[in-house]
Structures are given as C-alpha cells and as structure tokens.
Amino acid sequence: MLFALPDDQILYTALVARDVAYEGKAFVGVTSTGVFCRMTCPARKPKPENCRFFADVQACLAAGFRACKRCHPLGTAADADPMIAALLDAIAADPARRWRESDVVALGYDLGSVRRSFKRQFGVTFLEMARMERLRLAAGALAGGVSVMEAQLEAGFDGPSAFRAAFARHLGVRPSDLAREGQLRADWIDTPLGAMVAVADKRGLYLLEFADRPALARELRALWADCKGNLGFGRYPATDQIEAELTRYFSGQSARFDVQTIGGGSPFSQAVWRALQAIPAGETRSYSALAETIGRPDAVRAVARANGANRLAIVVPCHRVLGMDGSLTGYGGGLWRKQKLIEIEAQFVQEKRNEQS
Hints:
The chain is built from 15 helices and ten strands. By secondary structure, it is α/β, with parallel strands linked by helices. Helix 7 (126-143) packs parallel to helix 15, helix 12 (267-277) crosses helix 14 (300-309) and helix 13 (287-293) crosses helix 14.
C-alpha cells in the first residue's frame, strides 16, 4: 500500500522534529531556495509558507526542485549502487547536457539495468531525470530574464512516431492497440513553453496538458476508461481551434479562448472551473477568494483539489490562483511555467492600458 501523506501541518511538525518515521516516505520542497530535502535534513527549517510536501523524489524533481547538498535525498540509492552514483555525478557535472541512450552505452552501462535501477530507486529513468534537470535550468533562465525561445525546455517530440510511442507508454499499451479512428483523438501542439497534448472529439476539447506533467498519465487513463479504449491519434476541429488560439495567446494577441470544452468533473469542480475562467487575464486570486466566489468559503481545500484536477491547462486558468501571501503555489505544469504565464498575461493588461491612455 502506498503511503498517504497527512496534511501539511502534521508534515511541517514532523519536519521541525526531524521525525525519522517519515524518512523516505515524504520530502519537502523549499520554494524560497528551490531545494528539496529529506524530512530529517539538519539544515535550518524553512517557514511553513515556503514548504511543499511530496510523497517521492519523482514528484520533487517534476516540480522543479533540486536535491539538497546537505542531506542528499538521492544519496542512499547512490551509495548502494556505484552505477547510480556515477550517473548522478554526470548529471551534476553537466546539468544542461541532453543525454541520449547512446551516451549511456558509451559509458559502458547496460541500458536495461540503468533504466530498472533508476526507476526502482527514484520512480523515473536516468534520461527522464536528466531532462528534469534541464527543465529546472530553463526555469531559472526564464526567471532571470532570458527569452522563452532561448530557454525552451524542448519537451516536444521529433515527430508523429515519437508522440505515439510516448502517448501509448502513458497508457501502458502498445501504439498498435490504440484505435485507428478513435472516438477521442490525441495530438500534440508545440508552444513556447513546451509541447502540449490535446485530446478532442467531434464535440470539443477534453484535455489540454503539458506533455511532461506528472499527472498526465493518470488523466489519459481516465479518458481511456471513459471511452472504453476508443482512443486514437489525430485531430478534430477543436484541436485545430485550440492550436490557433494558443498561437494568438503566446504571441500576445489575445487571451480569449472560445473552443468548446468538455471538462467532466463533479458539479462542485465545474463551479470552481467556471470561477477560474471568470478571472480576467492579468489578475490573480487566492484559493480562499475563489471559495468565496462560488459561495463556499468553508471549502478552501476542496477548491484547491478541484483546481489541481483541472485537465484543461491555460484554457481553464488555474495558474491564476496564488497563495494568500501572493506567492506561487503548486502548478501541475511546473512553477516556472506558472510564473511565465502570469508574466505573459501581465502584458495583456499593460497593452490595454496603453490603448486607453
């Protein structure tokens, strides 16, 4: 059985106490430093509002945190396996390097062994871990003012076959098992912030997510179950429409999305998503303010869960929700993307002011 994380207050108390009961079962990401640590890390403890808690190393890496050099959250596996230690050192020595399978083989390692060892210890493969490190560097570059195109993490695909292979891997099936003329059809859309996966049918858009979002596999499997496996590759008009609307959005022309969306979810979740879409581009809200908007001021946690369950990134703008203190909080596409989306939308507000003056 997987370890279910308790609430943040319990976890923060355990962090301050360096409770060994949570060793290996929970990790803390510190937003003020960009570092993730063991719960028993001897470093001075961060403020509660700067802590994000995760169940595993994979989630920490996917959220853009780097391993602490004091408590070495990757260290146990590295100490136990010289191969892992050597490859982790290789990433640390050249974090911007784009690793390929041939590079691993050139170092004298068996690809299968490397894949199994990293997957067993960290929940991600070596190549995925290296890619996450490049993503983290891209986030830092963007925060430092580098242009999107210069810092783009290149999370896209080389072509249709690479996309089909990655998509099928998320579902745990072979590409040939996917429907030729699916009721739902999936394709990818390239954006300045990385590739996005779009799933649509004749009626509208069901899913729009960044291709490297950790929750994407779960969301795709849910759609697969809903349509009883009648899911394939290709496009419907909704896919072309959202691609055109995203192009206008990222080029600063328009923050309006008119594509027909089919979000599913409970009536409560749908109410939250409608409230999100009512937030003007360039403005933000807190979770508590969002709860007030839908008439449920007592349901802040439920609002946060509904926000996280949104599977129509950007169109349903969950990136416009911040912490009570105005800080960036969790975003499935990565905090660096959330920051960049907010910066993009601030430009719409400025241009509108310029037009009115």
